[in-house]
Design goal:
By secondary structure, the chain is an alpha/beta fold. It is built from 13 helices and 17 strands. The strands form 3 sheets. It has a 9-stranded mixed beta sheet, with helices on one face. A 6-stranded parallel beta sheet has the order 3-2-1-4-5-6, sandwiched between helices. Strands 9-10 form a two-stranded parallel sheet.
Length: about 375
């Protein structure tokens, strides 16, 4: 299996390692990356000597002739490269967020409306064992009809979005798109329906501030970083929350916080209906089922690997099998666009103070 990579950073090189665990004979044969030295150093050892570097997508595909493509650039370039790859109908592994603006998302929708390219979007949380088991219990009637979903992400490593390249708002588009895109995707998976309406709020500059604004009397409760922007110029949020309405009538709430530390970290969901409640947390590696009308609680503590609750390994297996023609994608481009448009609606709602209808992609 010959893989072409566009943007060979840390995330995609980790996924290539996961691909090779499934398919040891996989080799990276073609690369498009401006920093050839660092990119080559991130390649698997058996690919470093022979991988050829190219300057355009056209050259990478038509000269390099890979069997599949993986895009792992920084976030603002996911869409421009994916639009080009869509014309070639090759299997594509596409990092999230698939887009970081409405213009990008609509361009991506147009590009894939007629493409035969099978896309595996990097949404490992929806395929992780805890999430899949929760969905299976829902399908078996554990909660009855889904009425309400609560999703939380209390991020104990949140300063990474202010002290690394993630601090650049022009690249991330904000932390709904950068972070919540994972979570809104798996919440839609659990609900069994897309998000159709959003109301959101954000908090910016109260905990994390640009160092150039601190003046002579810095606030000891604030963490200052260089070049993170301001609420007026655009910056990542300290925290953000959204009310969610799903197409099947279920309602939900999602909250993400980026300044918690240590054991305050949490990520997971609570799904409730008339029959019962299911809740799980990836940090605690626990899933709990509560029977509303019988005196039973079930607690499950499955074992799973690292990497988004074990989802990375499952997603890697699916991508390899898609390339081999043995399977269909379990995270299609529609999932990526559903999440992107929901996140964009949340960002617009936070900016305008209005409920926003979510565009439903036609792919």
């Amino acid at each position: 299996m010959k893989l072409g990579i566009i943007g060979c950073g840390g995330r995609i090189s980790g996924m290539v390692k996961a691909f090779k665990e499934v398919c040891p004979e996989l080799k990276v044969t073609a690369v498009l990356d401006p920093d050839q030295e660092k990119a080559r150093g991130r390649l698997p050892e058996d690919s470093r000597a022979d991988a050829k570097f190219h300057s355009t997508v056209k050259e990478l595909i038509e000269v390099g002739k890979p069997d599949a493509i993986a895009i792992g650039t920084r976030c603002d370039l996911h869409t421009p490269y994916a639009v080009q790859v869509a014309a070639y109908d090759l299997p594509l592994y596409l990092e999230k967020p698939v887009s970081n603006s409405m213009e990008q998302a609509t361009a991506l929708e147009r590009a894939f409306a007629t493409s035969k390219c099978q896309v595996v979007v990097s949404f490992p949380l929806r395929v992780s064992p805890l999430c899949v088991r929760a969905r299976r219990l829902i399908d078996e009637g554990a909660v009855g009809r889904v009425e309400h979903i609560l999703g939380i992400n209390y991020v104990p490593y949140g300063s990474v979005y202010f002290d690394s390249w993630y601090k650049d708002y022009k690249i991330t588009g904000g932390l709904f798109l950068q972070k919540a895109t994972h979570d809104l995707d798996y919440l839609m998976y659990l609900a069994g329906a897309p998000i159709v309406r959003v109301a959101a709020m954000t908090s910016k500059g109260r905990v994390f501030r640009d160092a150039s604004t601190k003046g002579k009397n810095p606030d000891p409760s604030v963490s200052f970083y260089e070049g993170i922007g301001t609420p007026e110029t655009g910056m990542n949020e300290d925290s953000s929350s959204a009310l969610l309405e799903f197409a099947n009538g279920a309602k939900g709430v999602y909250t993400q916080i980026f300044f918690v530390k240590r054991s305050a970290g949490a990520r997971g969901a609570t799904v409730t209906g008339w029959n019962g409640t299911i809740s799980f947390d990836w940090n605690r590696k626990e899933l709990k089922r509560v029977w509303h009308h019988e005196p039973f609680d079930d607690v499950m503590t499955p074992a799973f690997g690292e990497g988004h609750g074990g989802g990375d390994q499952i997603l890697a297996k699916n991508f390899v099998e898609v390339v081999q023609g043995k399977a269909k994608t379990i995270c299609p481009i529609k999932a990526g666009l559903d999440s992107a448009f929901a996140c964009l609606a949340a960002r617009e709602s936070a900016d305008t103070g209005r409920f926003i209808d979510v565009h439903q992609p036609q792919v």
